[in-house]
Amino acid sequence: MKLPPIAHVAPRRLAEAVSRLADAPPGQALPLAGGQSLVPLLASRDRTPRLLVDLRDLGELTGVGEHDGFLRIGAMTRQHTLATHARIGAAAPLVSEAAARTGHASVRHRGTFGGTLAHAAHPAQLVVAAYALDARLLVSGPGGARTAALRSLFAGPGLRHDEILTAVELPLRGPGSGHAFGQVAHPIGGRPVASVAAVVDTAPDGTVLRAEVTVGTRVSPPTAVDVTHRLRDAGAAAAETVPTGPGQPQRQGPPTGPPAAYCRHAARVLADRVLTQAITKARRPGAGAPPVPSGSGHDAPPVPTRETP
C-alpha cells in the first residue's frame, strides 16, 4: 500500500524538531527516526499525520558514552551499531544480542534504538532487552529535558506528542552478572511472537543473588518477573504473564498469528532456557562488564560514533 501525502521537514537542531512537534495538534506531526516501525503504520493508515519531523540530521542524538554508572546510547544509534559496537557488546551484551536478531540486515542499518523503543512493540527484541535491563530514557520537550523509566511507557501514557526520545541509559553491571535472550519468530515475515530475556547477579561462590526474566509476546506487553526464589519454576512464572484468552495483540505485525496458548508455551520454554544460560554466563570467571569511570556529568553528550547511512 502506498503512503498517503505527508509534509516532511528535516531540522538540524533538536530545539527546532521539538518546536515543530509542539506546534502541531496531537497526532498530526510525528517524529521519523529510522522509519522501520513508523512507515508500515503509515502505509496501513494506522497513523495519519500531516507532517513528519525527520531526525536523521540531528547528530546530537547519536553516540555511545558512559555517565554516572550508566551506558548512554544516543536514540538515533542504528541497530547495526548496537550489534557491532565493542563498548556496547562489553557493557550491555544483552542489547547487542537482541539487536543482532532484529530483522534483516537492511532493517538493522536503518532502524534506530530510540525509534524501536518509542513504538514499544510488545515482543520486539530490543524492547524486551532494554526492559529487562531497566533502561532509562532521556526525553526532550517544550518544557525541557526529563528522564523516565522505559517500564513507565507500558505502565502509563508514554511519551507526549511533543516529546523526542534523545538517548537511552543502561545501568553498568559489575562482575558476576549474566544475561541471555531467546525468541520465537513468526514464520511469515520473521516478526517475534515471543521474546524472553534473563538478567542474573551472582555472588563470588556462584550463589544466585538476583534473577529476573522479562517476557514480551504478541498478546502481552513486556513484564519482568523476579524468579530469585523460584529458579526451578521460572518457566511457569513466565507463562503466568501471558493471558489465557486472546489478549490484546500489538498493532504491528501480521493481522493473525499464533494464539495466546502458544505464546504462553513459548514463554515457558524460553524462560527456562535463557535463565539457565544467564546463570552459566554469570558463573564464568570474569563474568560481567568491568566498572567504567563515569563521565564528567549527567548532561555530558555521548561520544560520537560513525553511523551507517
Structural notes for this entry:
- The protein is of the alpha+beta class and 309 residues long.
- It is 29% helix and 25% strand.
- It contains 11 helices and 12 strands.
- It has helices at residues 14-23, 38-43, 79-84, 86-91, 93-100, 105-108, 113-119, 125-132, 151-155, 234-239, 260-282; strands at 7-9, 29-32, 51-54, 64-67, 70-74, 136-141, 144-149, 164-171, 177-185, 192-202, 208-217, 220-226.
- Strands 4-5-8-6-7 form a 5-stranded antiparallel β-sheet.
- A hairpin with a 2-residue loop joins β6 (136-141) and β7 (144-149).
- α5 runs antiparallel to α8.
- It is globular.
- The two termini are 25 Å apart.
Number of helices: 11
The rounded distance between the terminal residues' Cα atoms is: 25 Å
Q: Mean pLDDT, as a whole number?
A: 87
As a percent range, the share of helical residues equals: 25-40%
List how many beta strands DSSP finds: 12
* Secondary-structure content class: alpha+beta
Give the strand content. Answer: 15-25%
Chart the SSEs and their pairings:
Elements: E1 7-9, H1 14-23, E2 29-32, H2 38-43, E3 51-54, E4 64-67, E5 70-74, H3 79-84, H4 86-91, H5 93-100, H6 105-108, H7 113-119, H8 125-132, E6 136-141, E7 144-149, H9 151-155, E8 164-171, E9 177-185, E10 192-202, E11 208-217, E12 220-226, H10 234-239, H11 260-282
Helix pairs in contact: 5-8
